[in-house]
Specification:
Elements (H helix, E strand, L loop, with lengths): L22 H14 L5 H22 L8 E2 L12 E2 L4 E2 L4 E2 L4 E3 L7 E2 L4 E2 L4 E3 L3 E2 L4 E2 L4 E2 L8 E3 L4 E3 L11 E3 L4
Parallel strand pairs: 1-3, 2-5, 3-6, 4-7, 5-8, 6-9, 7-10, 8-11, 10-12
Antiparallel strand pairs: 12-13, 13-14
Helix pairs in contact: 1-2
């Protein structure tokens, strides 16, 4: 069994061979290239940033994803089906996360989400506002998360509720609303 770290990025998860058709990895690569050359001075830096911007625009169209160049993505991000993924520029995503299609990570008036390392976010999930998602958490498909999710927990439903093992003293259905005791 492969153990995925919630702290140390696994850069091989983002690796793309030159002629490989991997649009999500190409999109992430364009973002990484732009950020790598953000402080490169002179005409050479302008050229490298310009190429990265063009790559980003192309791969954003191909993937149908809205991920800004200045967002804070931890290494090892996987997006197997990047169509419709939207990430706010102020959101923070930890290392080795997994985002499926149609995921929205956005803001409300209070701020943007902070997602810990090795978080799996199911298709169609929405993580909205100034929430913190703990390391190794799982966000279910079509879930709407408006409150914090503890490390290692699973959030499901609209609005999200937390599922935990029965041995933690929770009701017999194993669920309770996020933000309540």
């Amino acid at each position: 069994m492969n153990v995925v770290s919630a702290e140390t990025p696994d850069w091989s998860r983002e690796h793309k061979d030159f002629f490989e058709w991997a649009p999500s990895r190409a999109l992430i690569g364009s973002i990484r290239a732009y950020q790598r050359h953000a402080d490169t001075p002179g005409w050479w830096g302008d050229l490298l940033r310009g190429v990265a911007v063009l790559r980003h625009r192309w791969w954003s169209i191909v993937t149908g994803a809205d991920i800004p160049l200045n967002c804070r993505l931890g290494g090892g991000l996987l997006m197997p089906h990047p169509n419709g993924i939207v990430i706010h520029p102020d959101a923070q995503i930890g290392p080795n996360c997994l985002l499926f299609q149609q995921v929205t990570i956005g803001t409300r008036e209070a701020g943007a989400p902070k997602i810990g390392g090795h978080v799996d976010v199911g298709a169609g999930a929405k993580i909205i506002g100034s929430v913190t998602i703990g390391r190794n958490a799982k966000i279910g498909a079509n879930c709407v998360v408006l409150h914090d999710v503890p490390a290692g927990a699973t959030a499901v439903g609209i609005p999200a509720r937390i599922l935990r093992p029965a041995d933690q003293g929770l009701p017999s259905d194993g669920a309770h609303r996020v933000g309540t005791n």
